[in-house]
Amino acid sequence: QLDIIDERLRITNFITCFVSHLQWPNNVQLIGEDCAKSQLNGGKLPEINGESLKKALENTNELKKKLSKTQITIPWITLDDNVQNNHEAIEDLLQTVCTRYDGHKPDECTTATVDIYYSSYASNSRKFFIEQLIPTFRHIRERIRLNLYPYGPVDKNKTIEEECEMDAERCEANRIHACVLNRYWNQEVLVDNETALWDSKNQTLSFIHCFFKNIANGNSLEGLLQQCENEFLPIPDQINACVLNETESLGYLKKIRQKTIDVVENIPDNIAVIVNGEQISLEESNLQTIVCDELLGEKPMPCHRDKPSKVQVHFHYSAVDPEVTNFIKMNKFYDNYLHMEEIVDIQMIPYVKSSIDYQQLDCPGEEECRISRVHACVMNEFGNNGTHDAFDGQLQVIKFIDCYFSRLPEPDYLSIAQACVESTFHVDYWRSILDCAHSNESIDLLKQFNHEYVAQLLPKIAYVPWITIQDYHSYDAENHFIQTICDSYDGSEKPNECYQQINDKPSIELYYEPKNQRSRNVFITQFNRNRTQIDDLIDSIKPIPISQQNNNGTPECLNDFECVQTYQ
Q1: How confident is the model at residue 558 (pLDDT cuts 50, 70, 90)?
Q2: CA-based, 20 to 30 A from 360: which of 227, 244, 431, 442?
Q3: Which fold has domain 311-498?
């Protein structure tokens, strides 16, 4: 039978299928049979015998002999007559081969050169790396030449030492990134055994991702470096040693600073992105779309898929409601949002069950009015902008909400809010929040929330928390918050939290008497959802009514009506 597919392509497709199989690295016979059906001509594995293994062993020993080695690291890629392991090919095989080829190159050899000039201590850089750059690079890395320059805006009237003195945290963060990039980004400089089995570009970006994800999580830069270095870099403490050596790290930074001055005229919002020599507008552009538009020939599969939109969640809450308190605590609100921010935006909307008329609030209670006005001022002040260039405003707001409700049911709402504002934002901000809450501005803000969000709801709010997803009220989100967000996201790549197995929930059988006082107390105190939300924690409940039994095991009722009532 004529096979129109190149045999070498079939073999590499088979190997790719094999190592990406769900059963890998276990049950290799099953994996081989599955991949043979889908990839090999004839759909069957060839007969396995010792000759194939013997030939492979001979080839391996011949390579070791040429290298004068007894062991080699895997994978080992050679180009032409050079038997040395080509690290560049391991990282970027397509680009390496295209560069080496002297003939007429196919369109698939075209790449997009992406230069990122950024501050390592800026919320806009954080957002761009987490939501755009890192996913785009991992999707189509074989067609991207990526260069990273951590510095940010340059004041040409100052020296680098003066700039570092004025903003020491930004300078230290930039030095950390400069040391990591200099040591690990370019595979060709890696010759030591510790890094031979290591994907330098992917792991370097994993370090940067870790750094940006946790930068507003209460970590010092030193602690952040240690956490991300230990998790993603192959040689512990190497980067820390570079950062502590000011001459070395500042030397790297000086070169990056000069490159920034030479190339970028303006760095708006601490980050500039240049694709094939042209600076793009981040507000109006999607990096993956722009890169794909620059490519010729057959484009990588992600280029043919639209980037999925983030799930839009509106979370209506009361600052004094115990149901909201239970919800925030049970769903580990801040921790889960931090892990899922790539796929979801959460708009927190303080809700007061009241009538708002002119400059008066008619609330169920004075305390609820006061604390709701505080929350409205916090949302307005920090919802879109963080208190520091490095911190994301929305993330800080979620952290404040988590802090506030984690301290309830302490009775002094105002003291709780003050403590959480001071720990999440800064001590100095509490006075401005309090001034806002005592002024008519806070009432205007609640009216604005009511007009923009609450008044548009159908159905109307009946309780809190009241959650909408993509503008539709979601009972599922109110009962299974994380899973509903995951299910609502159209993208194929989701955070690990979307795949965590739910712990087995217990099943309950409850034997009770309808007229028994202790049975009554258990139902009122333990099974009232408004108090405990017990239905979120159990798999099933089977109430079994019983009555007093006689010696024969049959119910002994005072009268027929009581028996009917018990077993109804």
Answers
A1: very low
A2: 431
A3: Glutaredoxin (3.40.30)
